[in-house]
Design a protein that fits this description.
335 residues, alpha/beta, D-Maltodextrin-Binding Protein, domain 2, 2 domains, 5-stranded mixed sheet, 13 helices, 15% strand, globular, disordered N terminus
Length: 335
Protein backbone atom coordinates (compact mmCIF):
# COMPACT_ATOMS: atom_id res chain seq x y z
CA UNK A 1 0.00 0.00 0.00
CA UNK A 2 1.78 3.01 -1.33
CA UNK A 3 2.35 6.12 0.77
CA UNK A 4 -0.39 5.76 3.34
CA UNK A 5 -2.42 3.61 5.73
CA UNK A 6 -6.01 2.54 5.89
CA UNK A 7 -8.46 3.97 8.41
CA UNK A 8 -7.76 3.94 12.19
CA UNK A 9 -9.66 1.48 14.35
CA UNK A 10 -11.21 4.19 16.51
CA UNK A 11 -12.65 5.91 13.43
CA UNK A 12 -13.97 2.56 12.23
CA UNK A 13 -15.86 1.94 15.47
CA UNK A 14 -17.42 5.41 15.53
CA UNK A 15 -18.39 5.32 11.89
CA UNK A 16 -19.88 1.85 12.17
CA UNK A 17 -21.96 2.82 15.16
CA UNK A 18 -23.28 5.87 13.32
CA UNK A 19 -24.08 4.07 10.09
CA UNK A 20 -25.62 0.97 11.64
CA UNK A 21 -27.77 2.92 14.07
CA UNK A 22 -29.06 5.14 11.29
CA UNK A 23 -29.97 2.56 8.71
CA UNK A 24 -32.62 -0.01 8.16
CA UNK A 25 -30.81 -2.34 5.82
CA UNK A 26 -31.98 -2.05 2.26
CA UNK A 27 -31.16 -4.92 -0.09
CA UNK A 28 -28.66 -4.15 -2.80
CA UNK A 29 -29.84 -4.19 -6.39
CA UNK A 30 -29.35 -7.70 -7.75
CA UNK A 31 -31.80 -7.60 -10.65
CA UNK A 32 -30.65 -8.51 -14.12
CA UNK A 33 -31.42 -5.07 -15.51
CA UNK A 34 -28.43 -3.78 -17.45
CA UNK A 35 -26.18 -1.35 -15.60
CA UNK A 36 -23.10 0.04 -17.28
CA UNK A 37 -19.99 -1.44 -15.62
CA UNK A 38 -16.32 -1.27 -16.55
CA UNK A 39 -16.69 -4.37 -18.69
CA UNK A 40 -19.49 -3.21 -21.03
CA UNK A 41 -22.13 -5.61 -19.74
CA UNK A 42 -25.04 -6.95 -21.77
CA UNK A 43 -28.62 -6.93 -20.40
CA UNK A 44 -28.33 -10.61 -19.41
CA UNK A 45 -25.68 -9.91 -16.79
CA UNK A 46 -26.42 -9.30 -13.12
CA UNK A 47 -25.01 -5.94 -11.99
CA UNK A 48 -23.02 -5.89 -8.75
CA UNK A 49 -20.53 -3.50 -7.18
CA UNK A 50 -17.21 -4.38 -5.59
CA UNK A 51 -15.68 -1.61 -3.48
CA UNK A 52 -11.97 -1.60 -2.69
CA UNK A 53 -10.36 -0.43 0.53
CA UNK A 54 -7.70 1.61 -1.28
CA UNK A 55 -6.69 2.95 -4.64
CA UNK A 56 -6.09 0.26 -7.31
CA UNK A 57 -2.78 -1.51 -6.66
CA UNK A 58 -1.21 -4.95 -6.97
CA UNK A 59 -2.99 -6.06 -3.78
CA UNK A 60 -6.24 -5.86 -5.79
CA UNK A 61 -4.79 -7.29 -8.98
CA UNK A 62 -6.79 -10.52 -9.13
CA UNK A 63 -10.11 -8.71 -8.97
CA UNK A 64 -9.10 -6.46 -11.86
CA UNK A 65 -7.82 -9.48 -13.76
CA UNK A 66 -11.27 -11.06 -13.47
CA UNK A 67 -12.67 -7.96 -15.15
CA UNK A 68 -9.94 -7.50 -17.77
CA UNK A 69 -10.08 -11.13 -18.90
CA UNK A 70 -13.86 -11.46 -18.79
CA UNK A 71 -14.14 -13.93 -15.91
CA UNK A 72 -16.92 -11.96 -14.24
CA UNK A 73 -18.89 -11.94 -17.49
CA UNK A 74 -18.40 -15.68 -17.88
CA UNK A 75 -20.15 -16.06 -14.52
CA UNK A 76 -23.01 -13.83 -15.68
CA UNK A 77 -21.92 -10.80 -13.67
CA UNK A 78 -21.56 -7.14 -14.61
CA UNK A 79 -19.09 -6.10 -11.92
CA UNK A 80 -18.29 -2.46 -11.31
CA UNK A 81 -15.11 -2.10 -9.27
CA UNK A 82 -15.25 1.05 -7.18
CA UNK A 83 -11.77 2.24 -6.14
CA UNK A 84 -11.20 3.05 -2.49
CA UNK A 85 -9.54 6.05 -0.90
CA UNK A 86 -8.37 7.12 2.56
CA UNK A 87 -11.14 6.28 5.03
CA UNK A 88 -13.17 4.55 2.33
CA UNK A 89 -16.50 3.43 3.89
CA UNK A 90 -16.30 -0.12 2.55
CA UNK A 91 -17.59 -1.81 5.68
CA UNK A 92 -20.43 0.65 6.19
CA UNK A 93 -21.70 0.43 2.62
CA UNK A 94 -21.56 -3.36 2.52
CA UNK A 95 -23.20 -3.64 5.94
CA UNK A 96 -26.03 -1.34 4.86
CA UNK A 97 -26.61 -3.28 1.65
CA UNK A 98 -25.73 -0.31 -0.55
CA UNK A 99 -23.16 -2.42 -2.38
CA UNK A 100 -22.88 -6.19 -2.63
CA UNK A 101 -19.17 -6.86 -2.10
CA UNK A 102 -16.15 -5.20 -0.57
CA UNK A 103 -12.43 -5.81 -0.12
CA UNK A 104 -10.96 -5.46 3.36
CA UNK A 105 -8.45 -7.14 5.65
CA UNK A 106 -9.52 -9.89 8.04
CA UNK A 107 -8.93 -8.00 11.28
CA UNK A 108 -11.33 -5.30 10.08
CA UNK A 109 -14.05 -7.89 9.52
CA UNK A 110 -13.68 -9.01 13.14
CA UNK A 111 -13.69 -5.46 14.47
CA UNK A 112 -16.77 -4.66 12.39
CA UNK A 113 -18.60 -7.79 13.53
CA UNK A 114 -17.91 -6.83 17.13
CA UNK A 115 -19.81 -3.62 16.31
CA UNK A 116 -22.79 -5.65 15.00
CA UNK A 117 -21.92 -5.34 11.32
CA UNK A 118 -22.82 -8.82 10.09
CA UNK A 119 -20.05 -9.33 7.54
CA UNK A 120 -18.42 -12.51 6.32
CA UNK A 121 -15.14 -13.20 4.50
CA UNK A 122 -15.68 -15.12 1.28
CA UNK A 123 -12.27 -15.43 -0.34
CA UNK A 124 -8.77 -14.52 0.88
CA UNK A 125 -6.25 -14.27 -1.97
CA UNK A 126 -3.37 -13.08 0.21
CA UNK A 127 -2.84 -15.67 2.92
CA UNK A 128 0.03 -13.71 4.44
CA UNK A 129 -0.15 -10.01 5.20
CA UNK A 130 2.12 -7.69 3.18
CA UNK A 131 2.40 -5.35 6.19
CA UNK A 132 6.04 -4.55 6.95
CA UNK A 133 8.42 -2.13 8.59
CA UNK A 134 11.14 -0.50 6.52
CA UNK A 135 14.57 -0.08 8.13
CA UNK A 136 17.79 1.34 6.73
CA UNK A 137 20.29 -1.42 6.00
CA UNK A 138 23.08 0.56 7.66
CA UNK A 139 21.13 0.54 10.94
CA UNK A 140 22.10 -3.11 11.38
CA UNK A 141 18.51 -4.00 12.31
CA UNK A 142 17.63 -7.45 11.02
CA UNK A 143 14.84 -8.49 13.39
CA UNK A 144 11.99 -6.97 15.37
CA UNK A 145 13.86 -7.65 18.60
CA UNK A 146 16.59 -5.27 17.44
CA UNK A 147 14.22 -2.29 17.27
CA UNK A 148 15.93 -0.08 19.80
CA UNK A 149 16.67 3.66 20.02
CA UNK A 150 14.89 4.46 16.76
CA UNK A 151 12.03 6.66 15.57
CA UNK A 152 9.16 4.38 14.58
CA UNK A 153 6.72 5.95 12.12
CA UNK A 154 3.42 4.09 12.35
CA UNK A 155 -0.23 4.54 13.21
CA UNK A 156 -0.26 3.03 16.66
CA UNK A 157 -4.06 2.78 16.87
CA UNK A 158 -4.16 0.01 14.27
CA UNK A 159 -4.38 -3.61 15.41
CA UNK A 160 -1.05 -4.72 13.96
CA UNK A 161 0.70 -1.74 15.60
CA UNK A 162 -0.87 -2.50 18.97
CA UNK A 163 0.24 -6.10 18.62
CA UNK A 164 3.80 -4.96 17.93
CA UNK A 165 3.80 -2.53 20.87
CA UNK A 166 2.51 -5.22 23.23
CA UNK A 167 4.87 -7.93 21.94
CA UNK A 168 8.19 -6.05 21.85
CA UNK A 169 10.20 -4.15 24.49
CA UNK A 170 10.86 -1.25 22.05
CA UNK A 171 13.54 0.16 24.34
CA UNK A 172 14.26 3.78 23.50
CA UNK A 173 11.81 3.70 20.59
CA UNK A 174 9.92 6.91 19.85
CA UNK A 175 6.63 6.05 18.15
CA UNK A 176 5.43 8.95 16.00
CA UNK A 177 2.49 9.26 13.58
CA UNK A 178 3.06 7.91 10.12
CA UNK A 179 3.15 10.42 7.27
CA UNK A 180 2.18 10.08 3.63
CA UNK A 181 5.72 10.87 2.51
CA UNK A 182 8.84 8.73 2.56
CA UNK A 183 11.02 11.84 2.89
CA UNK A 184 11.25 11.90 6.72
CA UNK A 185 12.25 8.23 6.72
CA UNK A 186 14.83 8.69 3.97
CA UNK A 187 16.36 11.66 5.78
CA UNK A 188 16.77 9.86 9.12
CA UNK A 189 18.93 6.74 9.14
CA UNK A 190 17.58 5.83 12.58
CA UNK A 191 13.99 5.92 11.38
CA UNK A 192 11.71 2.93 10.84
CA UNK A 193 8.54 3.25 8.78
CA UNK A 194 5.39 1.20 8.22
CA UNK A 195 4.62 0.03 4.70
CA UNK A 196 3.46 -2.73 2.44
CA UNK A 197 6.11 -5.08 1.12
CA UNK A 198 4.68 -4.75 -2.40
CA UNK A 199 5.34 -1.03 -2.78
CA UNK A 200 7.26 1.07 -0.23
CA UNK A 201 10.53 -0.89 -0.48
CA UNK A 202 10.54 -0.35 -4.24
CA UNK A 203 9.89 3.38 -3.90
CA UNK A 204 12.58 3.79 -1.23
CA UNK A 205 15.16 1.94 -3.33
CA UNK A 206 14.24 3.94 -6.42
CA UNK A 207 15.14 7.06 -4.42
CA UNK A 208 18.57 5.70 -3.57
CA UNK A 209 17.91 4.20 -0.15
CA UNK A 210 19.34 0.86 0.92
CA UNK A 211 16.52 -0.68 2.92
CA UNK A 212 15.43 -4.02 4.30
CA UNK A 213 12.01 -5.07 5.52
CA UNK A 214 10.61 -6.78 8.59
CA UNK A 215 7.35 -8.53 7.73
CA UNK A 216 4.81 -8.21 10.55
CA UNK A 217 3.35 -11.63 9.72
CA UNK A 218 6.60 -13.19 10.91
CA UNK A 219 6.03 -11.62 14.33
CA UNK A 220 2.76 -13.52 14.61
CA UNK A 221 0.08 -11.03 13.56
CA UNK A 222 -1.04 -12.22 10.16
CA UNK A 223 -4.57 -11.31 9.03
CA UNK A 224 -5.76 -12.46 5.63
CA UNK A 225 -5.45 -9.52 3.25
CA UNK A 226 -7.58 -8.17 0.39
CA UNK A 227 -10.43 -10.38 1.56
CA UNK A 228 -13.59 -10.44 -0.54
CA UNK A 229 -16.51 -9.96 1.84
CA UNK A 230 -20.28 -9.55 1.89
CA UNK A 231 -23.00 -9.24 4.51
CA UNK A 232 -24.56 -12.35 5.99
CA UNK A 233 -27.93 -11.61 4.41
CA UNK A 234 -26.53 -11.70 0.89
CA UNK A 235 -24.63 -14.92 1.59
CA UNK A 236 -27.76 -16.59 2.93
CA UNK A 237 -30.30 -15.28 0.44
CA UNK A 238 -28.22 -15.30 -2.76
CA UNK A 239 -25.68 -18.13 -2.46
CA UNK A 240 -25.41 -18.57 -6.23
CA UNK A 241 -24.44 -14.93 -6.70
CA UNK A 242 -21.77 -15.31 -4.00
CA UNK A 243 -20.51 -18.54 -5.56
CA UNK A 244 -20.18 -16.88 -8.97
CA UNK A 245 -18.33 -13.90 -7.53
CA UNK A 246 -15.91 -16.14 -5.66
CA UNK A 247 -15.32 -18.39 -8.68
CA UNK A 248 -14.53 -15.45 -10.96
CA UNK A 249 -12.28 -13.87 -8.32
CA UNK A 250 -10.33 -17.10 -7.90
CA UNK A 251 -9.83 -17.36 -11.65
CA UNK A 252 -8.76 -13.72 -11.74
CA UNK A 253 -6.15 -14.16 -9.05
CA UNK A 254 -4.77 -17.27 -10.70
CA UNK A 255 -4.43 -15.31 -13.94
CA UNK A 256 -2.91 -12.26 -12.29
CA UNK A 257 -0.23 -14.17 -10.45
CA UNK A 258 0.71 -16.01 -13.65
CA UNK A 259 0.31 -13.33 -16.35
CA UNK A 260 -0.17 -9.88 -14.85
CA UNK A 261 0.79 -7.64 -17.80
CA UNK A 262 -2.66 -6.76 -19.17
CA UNK A 263 -4.12 -6.25 -15.74
CA UNK A 264 -1.23 -4.08 -14.61
CA UNK A 265 -1.78 -1.89 -17.64
CA UNK A 266 -5.39 -1.44 -16.58
CA UNK A 267 -4.44 -0.68 -12.97
CA UNK A 268 -1.92 1.87 -14.20
CA UNK A 269 -4.61 3.57 -16.28
CA UNK A 270 -6.89 3.79 -13.27
CA UNK A 271 -4.13 4.84 -10.87
CA UNK A 272 -1.27 6.51 -12.81
CA UNK A 273 0.75 6.82 -9.59
CA UNK A 274 1.30 3.07 -9.92
CA UNK A 275 3.62 2.74 -12.90
CA UNK A 276 4.18 -0.60 -14.56
CA UNK A 277 7.55 -1.16 -12.93
CA UNK A 278 6.23 -0.85 -9.39
CA UNK A 279 3.24 -3.04 -10.27
CA UNK A 280 5.54 -5.74 -11.65
CA UNK A 281 7.58 -5.51 -8.46
CA UNK A 282 4.38 -5.80 -6.44
CA UNK A 283 3.26 -8.98 -8.17
CA UNK A 284 6.60 -10.65 -7.54
CA UNK A 285 6.49 -9.60 -3.89
CA UNK A 286 2.98 -11.02 -3.55
CA UNK A 287 4.11 -14.32 -5.02
CA UNK A 288 7.17 -14.47 -2.79
CA UNK A 289 5.71 -13.34 0.52
CA UNK A 290 1.91 -13.34 0.52
CA UNK A 291 0.51 -16.26 -1.48
CA UNK A 292 0.47 -19.79 -0.13
CA UNK A 293 2.32 -22.21 -2.40
CA UNK A 294 1.17 -25.34 -0.58
CA UNK A 295 -0.74 -27.41 -3.13
CA UNK A 296 -3.07 -28.54 -0.35
CA UNK A 297 -4.35 -24.99 0.12
CA UNK A 298 -6.09 -23.35 -2.82
CA UNK A 299 -5.71 -19.61 -3.37
CA UNK A 300 -8.39 -17.90 -1.34
CA UNK A 301 -9.01 -20.73 1.13
CA UNK A 302 -9.27 -19.90 4.83
CA UNK A 303 -8.93 -22.04 7.95
CA UNK A 304 -10.75 -21.90 11.30
CA UNK A 305 -7.48 -21.85 13.24
CA UNK A 306 -6.31 -18.66 11.53
CA UNK A 307 -9.57 -16.87 12.30
CA UNK A 308 -9.61 -18.14 15.89
CA UNK A 309 -6.06 -16.92 16.41
CA UNK A 310 -6.88 -13.48 15.08
CA UNK A 311 -9.98 -13.21 17.26
CA UNK A 312 -7.93 -14.20 20.31
CA UNK A 313 -5.26 -11.64 19.49
CA UNK A 314 -7.80 -8.83 19.20
CA UNK A 315 -9.35 -9.94 22.50
CA UNK A 316 -5.95 -9.89 24.19
CA UNK A 317 -5.35 -6.40 22.84
CA UNK A 318 -8.76 -5.43 24.27
CA UNK A 319 -9.88 -4.22 20.87
CA UNK A 320 -12.96 -6.46 21.07
CA UNK A 321 -14.84 -7.83 24.07
CA UNK A 322 -14.00 -11.37 25.11
CA UNK A 323 -16.50 -13.76 23.54
CA UNK A 324 -18.21 -11.10 21.41
CA UNK A 325 -17.18 -12.65 18.08
CA UNK A 326 -17.60 -16.26 17.01
CA UNK A 327 -14.79 -17.18 14.61
CA UNK A 328 -17.01 -19.72 12.86
CA UNK A 329 -19.32 -16.94 11.67
CA UNK A 330 -16.56 -14.86 10.10
CA UNK A 331 -15.93 -16.73 6.87
CA UNK A 332 -17.08 -19.26 4.31
CA UNK A 333 -15.37 -22.59 4.83
CA UNK A 334 -14.23 -22.94 1.21
CA UNK A 335 -13.62 -20.48 -1.66
Amino acid sequence: MYLSMKRPVAFLAIALATFLAACSQQPANNSTTSVSGDNGATPSLTPVTLMLNWYPEAEHGGYYAAMVHGYFEEQGLDVTIQPGRPNAPVIQQVARGEIEFGVINADRIILARAQDARLKGLFAPLANSPRCLLVHAESGIESFEQLKDVTLMMRRENAWAQFLINRLPLEGVDVVPNTSSLAPFLANKKAVKQGYIISEPFVAKSQGADVRTLQVAELGFNPYTSVLMARDELVTQQPQLVQKMVAASLQGWQKYLGSPAETNQRIHELNPEMDLEILDYGVQALKEHCVEHDSQNAIGAMTPDRWKTLVSQLEELEMITLGSVDAAELYLSSP
